[in-house]
Predict the structure.
Amino acid sequence: MEFKFSQYLVRFIQNSNDSILRFEDTATCRIYEATLLDRAYMDYGVFGGLEFINRIVIQGLQKKDTGVHVSLDTGASDRIRLSLTYTHPMVPKKIVLDLDLMAVRRTSATEDVEVLGRRVRDLETALQRQLATTSAIVDPLSSRIKELEGTIRELEGMTGGMIMLPGGGPPCPEDTTTLEFAFNGAKSVRTLSVYTHTNPAGHKIPTQYCSQGQYIIPHDGPPLKSIKQLRYLKRCTTLCLAGFIDSGDFSFLGEMKQLQYLYITSLAGGTANTPDCTNNGRNPPLKDISWITNLKNLHHVSFFGCISLVDITPLKELKTLKILDIRFTGVKNTECLVNPGLTITK
């Protein structure tokens, strides 16, 4: 059930043993929540217990019961104190409900949502003022507003410890350790058992790639323009991006400093040993890997099918690198890599 109360959007969810009351501040995007437990209101069993309390809360907030007096204390930033006083001629004494709605856990991303939300509203105000005098700024401002709204949706996906993945995939916990994106090209990603044990380039992935916390995301839509929200996966150790990114900017990967296994590959249209690996032009447009120097824990790296990649000099900074796959790339010179124990497949 949803309804408005003051500046808040109220959501009231009734379950068999409890009810959840949630206030969302429409101005700041902050969320406050309280749980009403059935056992906490057993003294009111003669009136109907939790069901009776639910009616007082709902009718009081919707102002449908004149016997309910509602007061709201918003003095603290981490909570809202809600007090409902119920009086009725058939009830011998007043019933007073004092509820603490605690703020849902916040992250820097949700703080960014508030800032970006204000920017969007400021831009919309400026747009309305300028429409009367000129149309030259309409298109740029509209485009910028859409970009900011997209960023807000991306950051909102992080609230509550969850991250909304690009392409409309399911959200995943921010402590996910393994993530694979596979574009539905020449090989069908619907046979997930195949992709559980091998990556799209056809060589074996370490056994931990199949451990708890793994996410395999088949992506059937058009190539994605950005996957920058993956940088919030601070505990991710294994990441596979299989040939469906249109943007050549992979610099955000430099923030994922726990990565040990990184695969940026195309999908093999034939086999991994033939040049037929372009996936109908779906090769990752990877050229610059200067960001990789931040990933000091990398053991395995594959750039299979990244035909635009020529310079791999930054890899010399990775002292723990053991396996490197540069088949069907533009790399000609590997003399810069003198790491002992490094195996290069080319």
User: Anything to note?
Assistant: Confidence is low (pLDDT under 50) at residues 184-215, 268-279. The chain has three domains: 2-103, 108-147, 168-345. Helices lie at 50-61, 108-130, 138-156, 192-197. The first strand starts at residue 2 and ends at 5.
